[in-house]
Amino acid sequence: MPEGLWVLGLAGILGFASWRAGEVSVFMRSWIPSWRFFENTGNLPVFEFSCDGDSVADRWSPVPNPTGSGKARLLYSPGSNSFHAFETLVLDFALNPSHEDLVSCLVDEGVRRVLAFHPDTKTIRFKVSWTDHEGTFSDPVWEGVWNSPNS
User: Fold this and answer.
1) What pTM was estimated for this model as a whole?
2) Half-sphere exposure of 85 toward its Cβ, with a 13 Å CA cutoff?
3) Helix crossing, 78-95 with 100-117: angle to 10°?
4) Phi, psi dihedral angles at 31 (to 5 degrees)
5) Beta strands in the chain (DSSP E)
6) What does the DSSP assignment read for 4-16?
7) At what angle do helices 78-95 and 24-31 cross, to 10 degrees?
8) Each residue's pLDDT tens digit, 55-65
């Protein structure tokens, strides 16, 4: 088989699968290894949460994204692809915080990740802000609250 033909075949399969999955750009970015770690030259979005049981009123922590080890970023693995897909979702949302579908996806994924570490939480506050390389945070570009349906 000619060398370029298998690449074309793989691109066709991924293209068809992404079309079936819906949003082409998000799906493709989750399957192709990301090289963004070379490109982080500007401000980055930060997605943070605060649980209802926190003793300090304004105690914010980054939403867990534990699957992105440094070595795994260069290699294909579902864990590192999940890590990059979540980073991309946060970045897309920070650039367009009024997009209703992105709000729904971000809150659903944030709740799933926070509840994995804090399963008894009834209320989770979220915020998205920007940070520069010195670690200075901007004012939040979006804030939201999730309340458990079981409360």
Assistant:
1) 0.65
2) 20
3) 130
4) -105, -20
5) 44-51, 61-62, 123-131, 142-147
6) HHHHHHHHHHHHH
7) 140
8) 555 689 999 88
